[in-house]
Design a protein that fits this description.
The chain is α+β, with helices and mostly antiparallel strands and 607 residues long. The chain has a domain of 141 residues. Helices cover 27% and strands 43% of the residues. It has 11 helices and 27 strands. It has a 6-stranded antiparallel β-barrel with strand order 7-8-13-14-12-9. The longest helix has 47 residues. The radius of gyration is 39 Å and the shape is elongated. The chain starts with a helix and ends with a helix.
């Protein structure tokens, strides 16, 4: 189809207009970019900070409303780094930043230029490498001086002259990295992998008395973090997060897929790297739900108040290599002692742990097998966790209820009660263990003490007791029968016949004993002060087991009433036995006399 002259003229004029508009847009973009670049350079030249700030390129697109700053670098002066490293300044942290792209997207340029109001769709930061250097505590000779207003970064408020309003919907960090270094020790404390973080509904509001000063408002704040791996301080562990979501308006935090893994593939090599014996933890958690948690208060006001924490699908493995020395200077606190000396307000109404598993293993010198104890189908409920003094004064007690299957098969229940408003720090515990074949416990007993159960059946264990910071006491009733054990030599292969015989000779084969008497054992243990809460509780229970099995073990003495009742029961049993015997004899005599009569009758009939 041929175009008419009028159509051709229209197309030419349209093309010219479009070309002019394109050129105009490009020219305006270049002009605005030049103006903005000039303003930034002017501000940087007037700055007297100890940082060198440079920008590679500034771009503006009036069609999309995007302001792009590329190649932004914030580098501290070498003299500042040296002063912080030697503690000659009151600054504790300095930062190095290299940002590939800093973009303010979707800006209404008319409102920004004419009305002084910034409406932006989002701020986007891409390919940012941020390093924070931590210095030692400033020396006492350093005088604390106030930093000039134009030399500091105020995280609480931003002063922007000429602006009347800032409205921002979203802040996105894409492919960014954060590292924290200790200058004094010259080592990395913390680092992230490729960090992708999205922050939503961050508002900037002005102060009533100064319309040019803006502060961040987080009432509607939301955050989303995708797959992330963080190296924790010390470099021993990595923290992996699959997905994190936080909503400040609803005070709700959810984490899907959290893992804490050693940085060493060989855990024994890691244990050797420690100066003292330490537990090496490897865990994964399926889901974490935290209700009524205000992240902003926790980070800015250093106070944590939580209604409930739900944890599901925890799988944790703990290895302790006991071939290395213990740190005997340690004084680990009990759970309620930790709370009372926490140093900041903490209140958690409830913690629920469900559907979890724990495996604890110990490696001992010259023993190939690992001592292994496990808790499967683990469920724990914790109530009233607090360090708030007013809450402690109410007299309420922290409670922990634990249910699990010990060694995968034996039902276990333990309840702990921790009074918080006390001086002696006494806590209470009670629990039970269900029926099982004693061979099940060989995986724990065999590597630890070189003894294994050949046969025997555990019917039940019930215990209760109390303890303070240094000593424990209580009672245990352990019912079992047909106990038989053997002791192996150091190679854990050959049987030590003498010790096996001795073990059987000095062990009670059952409870109740042959006379029907049930022994109630006494528990009591003086705490090894450099070891923790778990060791304290286990060693206490162990004394109850030993006192039950050993003929020389301490048991609860019966009072006169109990003894008299038992004596009456024994006498009654004896009387019943005699009666049965006499009844049996009488019955036999009757039967024999009847047989004699029947024989006589038969003889008479024959005659």
């Amino acid at each position: 189809m041929k175009l008419t002259k009028l159509q051709k003229r229209f197309l030419v004029i349209t093309g010219i207009i479009v070309g002019i508009l394109v050129i105009a847009v490009i020219a305006i973009n270049i002009f605005l970019a030049t103006v903005i670049r000039g303003k930034i350079d002017e501000a940087l030249n007037k700055s007297t900070t100890d940082y060198q700030i440079t920008i590679k390129r500034v771009g503006v697109n009036i069609l999309t409303g995007n302001l792009n700053i590329r190649g932004l670098k914030i580098i501290p002066d070498s003299s500042l780094i040296n002063d912080v490293k030697q503690g000659k300044t009151n600054l504790k942290f300095i930062q190095h930043s290299e940002i590939g792209l800093f973009r303010i997207a979707g800006v209404d340029l008319y409102k920004a230029i004419v009305l002084g109001e910034i409406y932006a769709r989002k701020i986007e930061i891409r390919k940012a490498n941020i390093r924070i250097d931590k210095g030692p505590k400033p020396s006492k000779t350093v005088e604390e001086t106030e930093t000039k207003n134009n030399d500091k970064i105020n995280l609480d408020s931003i002063y922007i002259k000429g602006l009347n309003k800032i409205n921002l919907h979203e802040i996105d960090l894409v492919n960014c990295k954060l590292e924290i270094f200790d200058l004094a020790k010259d080592e990395k404390l913390f680092s992230t992998g490729s960090l992708d973080l999205s922050l939503h509904s961050v508002d900037f509001v002005t102060y009533p008395d100064n319309p040019n000063v803006f502060r961040m408002e987080f009432s509607k704040f939301k955050a989303e973090l995708s797959t992330q791996s963080l190296m924790l301080p010390g470099g021993w562990y990595n923290l992996d997060i699959n997905k994190l979501y936080y909503n400040n308006a609803e005070n709700f935090l959810r984490i899907d897929g959290l893992g804490l893994h050693p940085t060493y593939k060989d855990k024994y090599k890691m244990a050797k790297a420690f100066k003292y014996t330490k537990e090496i933890v490897d865990l994964d958690i399926d889901k974490i739900f935290i209700q009524s948690f205000n992240l902003i208060d926790a980070t800015t006001k250093n106070m944590v108040f939580i209604d409930s924490i739900g944890i599901s699908g925890l799988n944790v493995a703990i290895l302790k290599d006991k071939r290395y020395p213990f740190n005997e200077t340690l004084r680990p606190k009990l759970p309620h002692q930790l709370l009372k000396h926490l140093g900041f307000p903490l209140y958690i109404k409830m913690i629920n742990l469900t559907g979890s598993n724990l495996v604890y293993q110990e490696k001992m010198k010259d023993i190939k097998e690992l001592m292994t104890a496990s808790l499967s189908d683990l469920n724990v409920n914790v109530q009233f966790v607090t360090s708030v003094k007013d809450s402690i004064r109410t007299g309420k007690r922290m409670k922990i209820k634990l249910k699990a299957n010990f060694m995968k098969k034996v039902p276990l229940k333990i309840d702990f009660v921790f009074p918080l408003n006390t001086v002696k720090d006494t806590f209470y515990f009670a629990g039970s263990l269900g029926a099982a074949n004693l061979k099940i416990f060989n995986q724990a007993a065999f590597p630890a003490i070189g003894m294994q159960f050949v046969k025997g059946h555990l019917e039940s264990v019930h215990f209760k007791g109390s303890a303070n910071d240094s000593v424990s006491s209580g009672q245990m009733t352990m019912l079992y029968k047909d106990l038989n054990a053997e002791v192996l030599k150091k190679d854990r292969i050959r049987k030590n016949k003498f010790l096996s015989w001795a073990a059987d000779a000095v062990s009670r084969s059952g409870n109740p004993g042959k006379k029907g008497k049930t022994r109630v054992a006494i528990m009591g243990f003086n705490r090894v002060m450099y070891k923790g809460f778990g060791n304290f509780v286990w060693k206490t229970l162990q004394t109850g087991i030993v006192n039950t099995v050993s003929p020389f073990g301490k048991t609860v003495k019966d009072d006169k009433a109990v003894k008299q009742k038992r004596k009456e029961q024994n006498q009654k049993q004896k009387t019943e036995k005699k009666t049965l015997k006499q009844t049996g004899k009488t019955q036999k005599q009757k039967e024999s006399s009847q047989k004699t009569k029947q024989k006589k009758k038969k003889k008479q009939k024959r005659k």
